[in-house]
Design goal:
By secondary structure, the chain is of the alpha+beta class. It is built from nine helices and 15 strands.
């Protein structure tokens, strides 16, 4: 009984070994070139040549696999060429002797082809890893270089406890807010439109440090700036660059962009301080919205580089207050927001000049309405020939208050009469001097 069991087990093991060997040969065929019906001499010498050629290619491919180096382009080309050679020989045998048992060669070809695909795939993955490692190292080097170039500098930092308390805020007052010793008790949230409104912006860092992260440090002093947004009653009323230079000089000097972390200014109708230009333009452009009563006023500051079209979305500071608007708040003697003052009262001249101006506007197709006119010269300016001293012409200047599309401006014009040898011609020549400004329409009533 035991002998029978032993025989059964022995037969089972032999079958298992045969099956395993068959499975192994599917993955890796016997690469030796044996004898037999597949490789013995063929009656057709041409076919025999193909058979010998196939056997030679198999030997070469087998040798190449023993020293495979898929990173070497020369090896890769040589292997591919030999594999193509084997395929060509197999196809030639099939063509010239369709009955020849070619399966052994085809199995070997498939094995070598799979090895090629496997080797190339692994090498591609390895190349990718090397490239990524190289790129990562290069990026790290570039980042280190960038970080070193765009390093922030030491500025004034937080200047006092009030600065810390109102960090990234804009505070307002009816009196000037000291940079070093601000008085919080003076901070207010209700103001009259015609009264000066002092403000101070508390930043977390100087303007240079704000811009250096993304811009060339060498040009920040000249191009690094700010952007101002003003909202009236919740509606965007101003959205432009914040003027750091004004009529009286620089509100923020280039070298101060590397130090100052707090900026002070005044919202008024004099255009002599930081913020006044934006305040004036906002009020003039939104005159129709300034009805008597209280209005909300909000101011926001953003970083803006001169070469950029728009500011970044980083809000640097903001603040708001209630603005009380009264009737007739405009000072008509204020040249900044109203018409220039008259220097001479001459009804006859004014009539001549205004009539000529209307002709000028028609001729130049300027669709404006002349609302007001004042003489800006007290006397005629006589021009004489620089050598002979003979009279050439006489000129006076005048300012015209103009209205167009609900907005008002003033323009300065010259009015000239030329000398013809016997007297001044009656024709009056009109030219714009280029002097002009936005004004409240209320000034032209």
């Amino acid at each position: 009984m035991m002998n029978m069991k032993s025989k059964i087990i022995t037969v089972f093991l032999l079958l298992s070994l045969v099956t395993a060997k068959a499975q192994f040969n599917l993955k890796k065929p016997n690469l030796s070139i044996g004898k037999g019906d597949k490789t013995e001499n063929h009656s057709d010498s041409k076919v025999q040549t193909y058979i010998e050629g196939a056997k030679a290619s198999i030997e070469k491919l087998n040798a190449k696999l023993d020293e495979a180096n898929w990173a070497n382009s020369s090896f890769e080309r040589g292997y591919a060429s030999e594999l193509e050679n084997l395929e060509s020989k197999i196809n030639s045998i099939k063509r010239d002797d369709p009955n020849y048992k070619i399966s052994d060669f085809e199995e070997k070809y498939k094995y070598f082809s799979n090895k090629q695909n496997e080797g190339l795939a692994k090498q591609k993955e390895e190349n990718k890893k090397v490239a990524e490692a190289s790129l990562s190292a290069e990026k790290a080097k570039e980042k280190e270089k960038f970080d070193d170039l765009h390093k922030k500098i030491k500025d004034e930092g937080i200047t006092n406890v009030t600065h810390q308390k109102y960090l990234q805020k804009i505070v307002f007052s009816k009196t000037e807010i000291s940079k070093t010793s601000p008085n919080e008790n003076s901070f207010a949230s209700d103001f009259q439109i015609a009264s000066p409104i002092y403000f101070r912006i508390y930043l977390k860092e100087c303007l240079y440090n704000t811009h250096v992260v993304a811009h060339d440090p060498s040009i920040i002093e000249n191009q690094g700036g700010l952007w101002c947004k003003i909202f009236l009653d919740g509606k965007l009323a101003w959205d432009k660059s914040f003027a750091l230079n004004g009529n009286v000089g620089k509100y923020l000097k280039p070298e101060e962009k590397k130090t100052l972390t707090t900026l002070g200014g005044i919202l008024n109708f004099k255009d002599e301080n930081l913020g006044s230009y934006e305040y004036i333009k906002t009020m003039i452009e939104n005159e129709n919205s300034l009805t008597p009563g209280n209005h909300s006023f909000r101011m926001e500051i953003y970083p803006k580089f001169m070469s950029d079209d728009r500011p970044t979305d980083e809000l640097l500071a903001s603040g708001e207050f209630n603005l009380n608007v009264t009737s007739n708040f405009v000072d008509r003697n204020n040249y900044v927001v109203c018409m220039p003052t008259s220097k001479k009262k001459d009804l006859e001249l004014e009539a001549k000049f205004t009539a000529r101006l209307k002709e000028y506007f028609i001729a130049n197709k300027e669709k404006v309405e002349l609302k007001k006119f004042v003489l800006r010269s007290s006397e005629w300016e006589i021009e004489k020939h620089e050598i002979t001293g003979k009279i050439l012409s006489k000129t006076m200047y005048g300012a015209a208050g103009l209205s167009k599309d609900g907005k008002c401006i003033f323009k300065v014009f010259s009015f000239t009469q030329f000398w013809d040898g016997n007297g001044y011609q009656s024709t009056i020549s009109v030219e714009s001097t280029g002097g002009q400004g936005d004004v409240f329409c209320d000034c032209l009533k």
